[in-house]
Design a protein that fits this description.
The chain is α/β, with parallel strands linked by helices. It has 10 helices and 16 strands. The chain folds into 2 domains: 150 residues, NAD(P)-binding Rossmann-like Domain (Rossmann fold); 145 residues, Dihydrodipicolinate Reductase, domain 2. Helix 4 links the parallel strand 4 and strand 5. (2R,3S,4s,5R,6S)-2,3,4,5,6-pentahydroxycyclohexanone binds next to helix 7.
């Protein structure tokens, strides 16, 4: 019987609230120990909904509090790196929503700090790796069903249309997931990127670039294309396809009813990622809490994956800004993060 992991949640906006509810209601072996948010009332509301957890005005106090075994960070992106660092200093396992940091350099410092500790405490919320449809593609590719995977093709559409959305935000906030999927599903690293974007509506602000096409070259001669559209209007959709030597594997759409009526055939489209990836968010936390309980490696994205995706997104932003292809360095994966390395890791004390 493993001990219950008491998780402190920093950031109780939409994403943090969902994580807190999942921990409280759906993740075996987890409890919400406390919450902290710039909006104290919001933190208090979520704490009350999660069994009357404590409310911390200071997120650093939450991290250090002896009743908190592990920390989940879902606060605004610019705060992630500092909170992750504090968790490493406190020796506590941490699940950080993507991005791990705002720049590759900040992410690199976290990787260095974790390596200095010699054990993996950091998990990054790139949750496609827990989506049943993506996992089915991974299984088929790993089983060699289509021969060697050669190309990843991703489509990623958000429904809602912010009228101001710089291309760099589309890259760091949205495309980062597909970049991670390409690396994960092909098992290769990105070596070069080329990015073009358009503003889809004349009334959007001048800085807005809400539809992007990314072309990636990866190691071992692999390729990827990613379409990210932030103003699709009709709904939220993410598709991933791996084209192999002898066939292709594509994510199925999550099962839903098809209604045929009045000469038409229709099925609902999700409106937001919290619906489309409902199960992935739960499974990600189940996997994370299990890894903390058992002291084994988290099978999702590590600090290294967070760092590498940051390096690639930085290159994509440069490619978008310059209109030129940009080379991406592919540093060797440190031993701590290699799959073949002895299982190191983790653990709440
Ligand atoms: C959002 O922040 C997410 O993380 C979703 O998973 C992603 O699909 C969406 O594009 C982002 O805006």
């Amino acid at each position: 019987m493993h001990k219950t992991i008491a998780v402190g949640v920093i950031g109780t906006g939409g994403m943090g609230t969902r994580h807190a509810h999942n921990l409280h209601r759906l993740v075996p072996g987890a409890a919400v120990a406390g919450t902290s948010d710039v909006d104290r009332d919001r933190a208090a509301r979520v704490a009350a909904e999660c069994g009357g957890a404590a409310v911390f005005d200071d997120p650093y106090q939450l991290i250090e509090d002896p009743t908190v075994n592990a920390v989940l960070i879902a606060s605004t992106d610019s705060t992630h790196a500092a909170f992750v660092r504090a968790c490493l200093e406190a020796g506590k396992p941490v699940m950080c929503e993507k991005p791990l940091a705002e720049t590759a350099q900040d992410a690199w410092h976290l990787v260095q700090a974790e390596q200095a500790l010699g054990r993996r405490l950091v998990a990054v919320g790139l949750m496609r790796r827990f989506d049943p449809q993506h996992l089915a593609v991974e299984r088929a590719v790993r089983a060699g069903k289509v021969g060697r995977g050669l190309m990843f093709k991703g489509t990623h559409r958000n429904a809602k249309v912010p009228t101001h959305l710089p291309g760099r935000v589309v890259i760091t906030n949205s495309a980062v997931h597909d970049i991670d999927s390409a690396r994960w599903l092909l098992g290769q690293e990105v070596t070069e990127v080329f990015v073009r974007g358009v503003r889809t509506r004349p009334h959007f602000s001048g800085e807005t670039v809400d539809m992007l096409l990314l072309q990636l070259a990866l190691t071992d001669g692999c390729l990827a294309t990613v379409e990210v559209t932030s103003a699709a209007g009709y709904g939220y959709e993410v598709c991933a396809e791996v084209v192999g030597e002898t066939g292709t594997v594509t994510t199925a759409q999550p099962a839903d009813a098809v209604v045929r009526l009045n000469g038409q055939s229709a099925t609902d489209v999700d409106q937001i990622w919290l619906d489309r990836f409902r199960q992935a968010y739960v499974d990600e936390l189940v996997g994370w809490v299990e890894s903390v309980q058992t002291g084994t490696s988290f099978r999702g994205a590590s600090a290294w994956d967070g760092y590498v995706s940051q390096v690639v997104t930085d290159a994509c932003i440069e490619a978008l800004n310059t209109g030129q292809p940009v080379q991406v360095p592919t540093p060797e994966t440190p031993a701590l993060y290699r799959e073949d390395a002895a299982p190191e890791v983790v653990g709440a004390d």
